[in-house]
Amino acid sequence: QSALTQPASVSGSPGQSITISCTGTSSDVGGYNYVSWYQQHPGKAPKLMIYEVSNRPSGVSNRFSGSKSGNTASLTISGLQAEDEADYYCSSYTSSSTLRTVFGGGTKLTVL
Amino acid sequence: EVQLVESGGGLVKPGGSLRLSCAASGFTFSSYSMNWVRQAPGKGLEWVSSISSSSSYIYYADSVKGRFTISRDNAKNSLYLQMNSLRAEDTAVYYCAREGQQWLALDYWGQGTLVTVSS
């Protein structure tokens, strides 16, 4: 099964905004609004940041936002802070084969 | 407070078996679907398997289908992953994760348990 496609790395300075893309197909990202985003700091478990494309769980900063256009979903982080430095993963429901969820390859965010 | 605690990881030889457990607390376990997600050393997340609240619906990634079996015991608030015919490529940290009220959103994760498959 193919993972969703994310850039390997992105970077930004404190206070800036960055966007991480997540590209799939019409069988996953493009066909359903079940895209989630997770943040993972080194040695820690992932944390849910966005669900259903653009919704934030309680307690997640409104600096994090999600969107989708066609087969590509995006995570935008505004007002970058040092603690945002982490790996970010997208995931989506997929209708292909027996899979239910597919993850992206992950993006390393560096705050300069 | 929601807590998920995995156990059962360790070193196993290729072809061997291992059973992972995930003890849940702080929520009504029987009301939620549960998932296993793994992460090979230095690699990304890979969804492994999911099971619905009453065990009616079970799904597996192609990479583990026929070798792994997910199950749950709602009376014991526990999730399991029986892993057979283990391969070197199964080496990973295995996380159990709760699927929240929002479908397919994994809102709580355990700390993970490391499975190493090596001779």
Short description, anyone?
Chain A is an all-beta fold and 112 residues long. Chain A has strands at residues 9-12, 18-23, 35-40, 47-50, 64-69, 72-77, 86-93, 101-103, 107-111. In chain B, strand 9 and strand 10 (106-109) form a beta hairpin.
List the helices and strands and how they pair.
The complex is a heterodimer of chains A (112) and B (119).
Chain A: E1 9-12, E2 18-23, E3 35-40, E4 47-50, E5 64-69, E6 72-77, E7 86-93, E8 101-103, E9 107-111
Parallel strand pairs in A: 1-9
Antiparallel strand pairs in A: 2-6, 3-4, 3-7, 5-6, 7-8, 7-9
Chain B: E1 3-7, E2 10-12, E3 18-25, E4 34-39, E5 45-51, E6 58-60, E7 68-73, E8 78-83, E9 92-99, E10 106-109, E11 113-117
Parallel strand pairs in B: 2-11
Antiparallel strand pairs in B: 1-3, 3-8, 4-5, 4-9, 5-6, 7-8, 9-10, 9-11
Mean of the pLDDT scores of chain B? Answer: 97
How far apart the termini of chain B lie comes to: 40 Å
Helical element count of chain B?
A: 0
Name the overall outline of chain B. globular
Supply the helix-strand structural class of chain A.
mainly beta
Question: DSSP strand (E) fraction of chain B?
Answer: over 45%
- The Rg value of chain B, from CA coordinates, equals 13 Å
Low-confidence stretches of chain B: none
Distance between the termini of chain A: 34 Å
Number of strands of chain B: 11
Q: Mind telling me the C-alpha Rg of chain A?
A: 13 Å
Outline the biggest β-sheet of chain A.
Answer: 6 strands, mixed
Helix content of chain A: under 10%
Q: Give me the oligomer status.
A: heterodimer
Pair of chains with the largest interface and how many residues each contributes: A-B, 28 and 26 residues
Name a few traits of the molecule:
heterodimer, A: 112 residues, mainly beta, 6-stranded mixed β-sheet, 3-stranded antiparallel β-sheet, B: 119 residues, 4-stranded antiparallel β-sheet, 0% helix, globular
